[in-house]
Each structure stands twice: as structure tokens, then as C-alpha cells.
Amino acid sequence: VPANKITHGTTSVIEYYSTANNPLWQGPYQNLTVSEGRTSLTPIIPGSGSTAADLIVEKTFTVADNAVDNFIVTANSQLYKQTVSLKKKTTFSSFGGTGTVFKGSVSASGIDIGFSGNGLIQTESTVTAKDIIVNNGTGVWASSGAITAQNNITVSRNWTSSGSVTAAGAITANDWTAAGNVSLKGNLTAVQFNQTGGTLTFNSTAEQKLNFTGAGNKNIFNLTIYTGAKVKLLSPVTIVRNITNGGTFNADTYTVTL
């Protein structure tokens, strides 16, 4: 069927499966699912041979549990307007256009999710995953919905978060501006950290390390250390407003500016 003759009805689902990862229809899609051994998805501009197109999914996008682990979506840019559900480790890679934008929630409980390529990464609703990995590239990660990692968060590009960020493990970031609450049970390491609102909370009984490695911002808006928690400082910090310490705060020889 010629690409310009395909109409995808608003309630229908297009599903790609098998290990033959051939280039796909450009879309736009309504509901899109990948399954049964599929390892990748790349929409192609009709008539171009191999030039990746923009991927637009108007409703749901699903990576099924019988797709191959380490699934990758590659496109010029990607726009997901409603729910994204991931049952296998998935990486989203865009290299131009408007980057990768998620208007709805991203649900990957117990599953790793990755982002790579260039351009803006924008998550406007909740993101829930095991490990969240944002690889180096041009364009920031802008997260306005709540971010929840059941393990670690690793961000190798600039990050601006206006929603809450919660990690059951460690957070490692490059240049991070946070306007909301940040809570974690592991170490916090950032080249620069500028918290403009909310509270940074440490809540593990194991020792947690706080380390800002760069020469720029080291600003914590409010700091809370839960009862029984132990925090060891590995760099100078500035606490803009309040510190609430119910556990142990070991500043060692580093300066704490209040």
C-alpha cells in the first residue's frame, strides 16, 4: 500500500513484530505497539530510502514484554502525546528536529529507560522506571512531571526539573537546576546543582555521600536528613534556607554556607 494511502483510525492499533527490523511507515500513528522479537523501530521518509522521519504517536505507545530487551527507537524527532508503556529496556534516540517529547506518562516499572542522541528531551508528566539513563548530547532534559527511579538516575547532559525527583538509589548529574523536591537513598553527585525551591532529602540508614564536583552552583534550597540517616559531605555547599537534621551530618573539613 503506498504510504500516502494509509489512514490510521483513532481506535486502531498498529503492531510491528518479528526479528526483521526493516524500516517502517512514517505515520503519524494513533496506537503503536512493538512485540515478538522486535529489537528496533525507525520510521523512514517515503521515497528517501533510509532517511529517518519524525515519529508522532497520537495515543499510546507500547513495548510489549515479548519484544527484545534493549529495544531502541530511532527517529529525527519523537512526539508521544499520551501514555507510553515499556515492558522491556528501551532507549529513545533522536538526532534532530524537536528532540524527544513525552506529553503523557511514561510507565516502565522495574524496567530501565534510556535517552540518547541530540535535541531537547522533554517529559511533561510522570516517569517511573528502574534505572533512568540520559546520555550525553545537545539539548537539555526538561522534566516537569514527577520522576521516580526504583534504582539510580544518571544524567550526562544539562537537566532542569520542576517536578519532584525520587530515587531509591543514587543520582549522578551534570548541570542540574531543580525547582522541586529531591529525595534519594543513595549518593548525590553533580557537577553543578542549583535548587531553587523544595527540599533535598536524604533518607537511608546507610551512609550517603553528597558531592558537587564542579566550580559552579552548589546550592541546596532546604536540606532534610531523616532520623537515622547519615550524610557525608565531600564538597562545599550552600543551604539557602533551612536545614533539618534528624540523623548525622558529617561536613568533614568542607564549608557549609547558611
Helical stretch tally: 0
Major beta-sheet overview: 20 strands, parallel
Average per-residue pLDDT, rounded, comes to 93
Indicate the overall shape. elongated
Residue share in β-strands: 35-45%
Cα end-to-end separation: 67 Å
Structure description:
With 258 residues, the chain is mostly beta strands. The chain has strands at residues 13-16, 31-34, 40-41, 55-57, 61-63, 71-75, 78-80, 84-86, 90-94, 100-102, 106-108, 113-117, 121-123, 127-129, 132-134, 141-143, 147-149, 153-155, 159-161, 165-167, 171-178, 182-184, 188-195, 200-202, 207-212, 218-220, 223-225, 230-233, 237-239, 243-245, 248-250, 256-257. It has a 20-stranded parallel sheet that branches. The radius of gyration is 21 Å and the shape is elongated.
Using brief descriptors, characterize the structure shown.
single chain, 258 residues, twelve-stranded parallel sheet, mainly beta, 20-stranded parallel sheet
What's a quick, concise take on this entry?
The chain contains no helices and 32 strands.
Write the layout of secondary structure elements.
Layout: E1 13-16, E2 31-34, E3 40-41, E4 55-57, E5 61-63, E6 71-75, E7 78-80, E8 84-86, E9 90-94, E10 100-102, E11 106-108, E12 113-117, E13 121-123, E14 127-129, E15 132-134, E16 141-143, E17 147-149, E18 153-155, E19 159-161, E20 165-167, E21 171-178, E22 182-184, E23 188-195, E24 200-202, E25 207-212, E26 218-220, E27 223-225, E28 230-233, E29 237-239, E30 243-245, E31 248-250, E32 256-257
Parallel strand pairs: 1-2, 2-5, 3-6, 4-7, 5-8, 6-9, 7-10, 8-11, 9-12, 10-13, 11-14, 12-15, 13-16, 14-17, 15-18, 16-19, 17-20, 18-21, 19-21, 20-22, 21-23, 22-24, 23-25, 23-26, 24-27, 25-28, 26-29, 27-30, 28-31, 29-32
